[in-house]
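Lab notebook page, bench 4
Experiment: in silico fold of construct C2
Operator: M.H.
Input chain length: 340 residues
Purpose: comparison with the prior construct
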Amino acid sequence: MKALKWIGTAAWLWAAGQAHAQDAAPARVAGELTLAAAQEEALEHSPLYRRAQDREREAGWEQWEAFSRGFMPHVRVSGRHIFSVNYASEGVNFTGPSYSPFLENFPNTSLSLDADFDLFDGFQNIHRLDAANHNHEAAKILSDWSLLQMQENVQLKFYGAIASRLLSDMADQNVKTLEDHLRIVQDQLSNGQATRYDVLRVEVQLSEAKSDQISAHDNVVLGREALAQAMGLRDDDRPLKGELPALDSEALLKTATQVDILDSPQLRAKHLQALAAADRSAASSAALWVPRISLIGQYQAYDSQDYNIQTNGVINTGVYQNSYFFGASATWDILDGGES
């Protein structure tokens, strides 16, 4: 019983430790959040940037696939072993109208090594590699553009959250000022120095200020949520550390007028994707109108089978022999049913 009690106590302590660890997991929330830290965390958590990176990696693998498919030999190894077989028979005529049955034997165990290399395929390999290169370059441009967009979006949301906090503080100060002003006007009304109209006017101003204060507080929460979403987080309540920058509007406008719209990342990526589509089209056309010439070869090791005339059966000699060939092949799809 004491052992069970100690085991139960240890299990309870372990569960409590796990719960405390889960509660303390977001320890980073306790510190301050700067713009640089927000942009760095967005690199790890932003799904949009991750998707752009995955597309770039996928395009890189397509480059290797196009190179391997068109410029490297292909080698295949195959083997088989038959556990049970019922040989087919073939009739052989030796002397007269009757036929003697003979079993058609074949190896029970074999190991084959096949290799082929395309000498000429109508430049399909070059077109496929060019298409893969263009796709990878376009994916790289879009990945860099996604990184820039993510950083600028996080920066905009970060400064937007700081601005919302400043506006909220101003709304709180405005409400406090109007409350103090209302008390002064009420005192003046009791002393005959103000009218009821003055009191009503200040009360209306205070009511509008309180409404603006509620909106300002909501904007603080919404701005913080927008920043967390831009960083790829569900929520984040770390206090922001930073100040709003002083923008030079004339310098920004001068820089904006110097930007060439035709040199935008989206247009450059679309142009490269169009070139890749043209290369794929050329590769498909070459597959239809040009024959393929390849070097082929095969090496095979197999167990030798003999035919026993007396028992009319096949016996395994236990001797392994080999066969091989090396040559060239040419294929040309003249008619494929209109598929091409």
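Observations: The CA atoms of residues 105 and 327 lie 27 Å apart. The helical segments are 2-23, 35-45, 47-71, 124-190, 196-231, 249-257, 265-289.
Next step: discuss at group meeting.
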